[in-house]
Amino acid sequence: MNYTVGIDLGSTTTKAVVLGEDGTVLGRGITNSRSNYDVACQVALSEALINTRFSLIAGEFRGIARDPSQATTLIGALERKFRAEQYRSQLRVLDTELRRFLSRLLTRPPAAAAIVDRIVERMHGEIDALYAEGARRKSDFFRDLAGSRYLALAEDEARATGVSFDLLAGLFDKAILDVENSAEAAGHFDQHAAVALAGLPGADPALTTAVARVSALTLEQIGSVGTGYGRQRLPFPEGRIRSEILCHGLGAHAMFPHTRTVLDIGGQDTKAIQVDEQGIVTSFQMNDRCAAGCGRYLGYIADEMSLGLHELGPIAIQSSAPVRINSTCTVFAGAELRERLSLGEKREDILAGLHRAIVLRAMSLLARSGGVKDEFTFTGGVARNQAAVAALVKLVNENYGARTVNISDDSIYTGALGAALFALRSAGSRECRRTA
Amino acid sequence: MSPAPTAAAPARKDDSQVRQKAMIARHFDRLAAAPETGARTAYTFVPGNLTELLLSFDVLPVLPEINALQSAMRGKTAEYIAIAEKHGHSEDVCTYVKSDIGMMKSGNIGPTGQRLPSPDLLLLSYTGCFTFMKWFELLREEYHCPVAMLHVPYQADGRITDAMRTYVVDQLKQVVIPKLEEVTGRKYDEDRLREHLARSAQAEDDLVWVLQSAKNVPSPIDAYFGAVYYVGPIFSAFRGTTDAVDYYRELREEIAERIRQGKGPVTPEGEVERERFRVVVEGPPNWTSFRQFWKMFADEGAVAVASTYSKVGGVYDLGFRHDPDHPLETLADYCLGCYTNLSLPTRIDLLTRYVSEYRADGFLINSVKSCNSFSAGQLHILREVEARSGRPGGFIESDLVDPRYFSAANIKNRLESYFQMIEQKRPGVAS
Predict the structure, then answer these.
(1) Cβ contact A327:A337 at 8 Å
(2) A289 vs B: CB within 8 A
(3) Which H or E element spans position A254?
């Protein structure tokens, strides 16, 4: 089966979107960009292809299921078991790497090996619960999931045994890089799918048939386009590289065809983009060399407050009296933050003010690009942050009046979707040339 | 999208380039020798300068702006700016000023490695930039020399009136010429001035021909980066000299030959073999990363077919030529007509006209952080020119000579996006 893929190699995360030949989104994949761009690209694509196979399995299964009303539940159960197997596979690699780095230490406490044993054993024991039905996971990334458990367990062990926590944490920091830098660590679809199926005894046999059919499918890539800050690192020819601005414009158009203005707040930059009725970019403005007000700003604030990035929005949205933070300069905002804390201001009010400051900077770019037209689509990682969204909606309304503000659950994939659509168009035009 | 056009092996220097280099070297030799020869020097500015008048008094012009941009191209401005900041100049002021002050504090070594003489006169022919006045106030405190200020009215209505012209001519007669007479001990010689002005007009004809050669497809020149070299002599110490006349005649012949051969412009990386994008550029170049900046265009096959920066000293393609029959009036018109003295509507008209006449795919603004003369109103210009020309505008931000303001990744990202935007908007392009 033929597919095209768009890969958005961003500064923080790498996203891949797989399209069928009819332009339907079949799969999405995401991973961290931070350790190795080439591997990030492979992992995101591999994730998107796994996601694609699950879409195809769902399609197949719905057609042959004994009880189609149960199809979604069964597919969900299968996917959770599959993800658990992936996690187990990565945890095995982590275990190996932890021991390798431990053996390299010049001075290692005698208890260290046993501590690593206990931590990894506990983590293995928690996998089923982590992927149980209804379980909430704070991240999609192995680094985050495994890291938070490893460090918590290491803290307990350090307290109980007197072995240095820093030593145990340092081991993880080294070992996790090798897990992230190995595209193989997450294992293979067929193996995990077989184990996942075996974990569903008594399930409709048609599910086995659907998995077998989809596993046997050869997925052939007929086009690819790369975008994002790391696009030059992608293994694509130069002609298959598109700027994020064009990709976000086209991706937003595909998600919301009436979109005329697009705002993308990514990790390192903010783009205000105007598109026409075809999704073609007509003008854009981008932040200058200063990345104030971009996603990294939120990361900095989270570090300052010893919070997780994902915790900022939920806390800020609880504010009833946001403080006015004037600076969009990351460093100055840090100073304002500390001053406000010392004055006894509430954390949620300060955070709400910081989110507003980010959006004020974006408002300036929007104004420079030609204003906010109806409909308006907010894309990029920050679009997942409800406090940023709330501030944006309020300021857009105050400055431009009522506007339809679109935010997709898949907003983080907008650039990759646009890239995949460019790939599909190019593949289509090549096909035309071949048949002409 | 087709593969990026390649720039071939670096070309040899053209004869005109060799000639220009020798001219500049001779000029700096004369400046370095001034303390011994007793030659008088005047520091002055590029836009609307009075080179012919200075030459008629045998005064050698020194142009601090040119020194600053040359320092940037030699990688010296980070150091000079740091020195100026140590002396109390803040981060956001014109970086030409800080580079100049830093250079002066470092021994006033010019672009050729020779020491520049102190000025006998600071000649401020103010044209559209208030910072110039503050710059020369600072220099006056350092050099303790006379200052002659020529106030030039702003072209608010987009035209030069008789009253404006008379106002400038009166100042030339009552302030500037007497000051030059005082500094040099010589009498004003109008016949000598006429001779210089006649040579200016001759060189200006050839320069305009060269700049307008970019109307050819492909363009034989780059009218932004390449034009920096072409306008060097006419906007600096050479206008009105036989050197300039000879240089522009030779340059014109070289460009005529390129047209005959159907060749594109020469860049530091070699010739642009395939012209993919024709753009009009507004705003000065970035000097600290000039070559890298140019390469970003050349790598994409983007050729600047017209620019406003190449008119910063005087907008000859609106018809102006120095007129030896009206020597002071023509100097007044030249000062009044330089690009930074034009109103926003005039600049918009000019850019729109360039987009059309030079068959450009779009226009690009390089908004310079520390130059308000150029940058104020540029977003307005962008929207207006887009609306009138129907061609897409692009916007990037950098600085004149402060390397801290050039973010290569950011500018490259914006340029690539802009060129891809042009590509996407071409009729019949699917992807």
Answers:
(1) no
(2) yes
(3) helix A244-255
B4–chain A Cβ distance below 8 A for any pair = yes
Kindly list the residues from chain A whose CB atom is less than 8 angstroms away from the CB atom of residue B1. 238-239
Q: For residue A244, list chain B residues with Cβ-Cβ distance below 8 A.
A: 413, 417
Amino acid at B318: L
- Give the other-Cβ count within 10 Å of A341's Cβ: 14
Chain B residue with minimum CA distance to A419: B431
Q: What is the DSSP annotation of B306-348?
A: EESGGGSS--GGGT----TTSHHHHHHHHHHTSGGGB-HHHHH
Q: Note whether A191 contacts B: Cβ–Cβ < 8 A.
A: no
Q: How many CA atoms are closer than 13 Å to the CA of A108, on its beta-carbon side?
A: 19
Interface touch B405/A289, C-beta < 8 Å? yes
Neighbours of A427 (CB within 10 A): 21
Q: How far is B215 from chain A (nearest CA, A)?
A: 25
- The CB density around residue A338, as the number of other CB atoms within 10 Å, is 12
Q: What is the largest CA-CA distance in chain A?
A: 75
User: Mutation test of the interface with chain A: which of B424, B425, B426, B429, choosing the one with the most A Cβ atoms within 10 A?
Assistant: B424
Nearest-CA distance A246 → chain B (Å): 7
Per-residue b or e along A278-308, where b marks 16 or more CB atoms closer than 10 Å to that residue's CB: ebbbbbbbbbbbebbbbbbbbebbbeebeee
String of DSSP letters for B247-272: HHHHHHHHHHHHHHTT---EETTEEB
DSSP 3-state assignment of A182? coil
Asked if A242 lies within 8 A of B4 by C-beta distance, the reply is no
Q: Which of A243, A280, A428 sits opposite B416 (nearest CB)?
A: A243
Q: How far apart are CA B333 and CA B342, in angstroms?
A: 12
* Chains A, B: CB pairs < 8 Å: 64
* C-alpha distance across the termini of chain A, in Å: 23
- Contact map slice: B 359-398 vs A, CB within 8 A: 379, 383, 386, 392-393, 395, 397
Question: pLDDT of chain A along its 436 residues, tens only?
Answer: 999 999 999 888 899 999 999 999 999 999 887 667 888 888 899 999 999 999 999 999 999 988 888 888 999 999 999 999 999 999 999 999 999 999 988 888 889 999 999 999 999 999 999 999 988 887 778 988 999 999 999 999 999 999 999 999 999 999 998 888 887 888 889 999 999 999 998 889 999 999 999 999 999 999 999 998 776 666 666 668 899 999 999 999 999 999 999 999 988 789 999 999 999 999 999 987 676 778 888 888 888 888 888 889 999 999 999 998 876 676 677 788 888 888 899 999 999 998 998 898 899 999 999 999 999 999 988 898 999 999 999 999 999 999 999 999 999 999 999 999 999 998 876 655 554 4
In angstroms, what CA-CA distances link A432 with A95, A284, A398, B9? 51, 32, 48, 37
Our CA angle for B112, B100, B96, nearest 5°, is 110
CA distance A281 to chain B (A): 6
CB-CB neighbors (< 8 A) of A370 in chain B: 383
- In B, minimum Cα distance to A421 occurs at B431
In degrees rounded to 5, what are phi and psi of residue B71?
Answer: -60, -40
A280 touches chain B (CB under 8 A): yes
Q: How far apart are CA A418 and CA A8, in angstroms?
A: 9
pTM for the full predicted model = 0.87
Which of A120, A113, A123 lies closest to A161 in space, CA to CA? Answer: A113
A373 SS3 class: coil
Q: Which ipTM score applies to this complex?
A: 0.82
CA angle A287, B392, B2 (to 5 degrees): 95
Q: Supply A246's token pair.
A: 């064009």
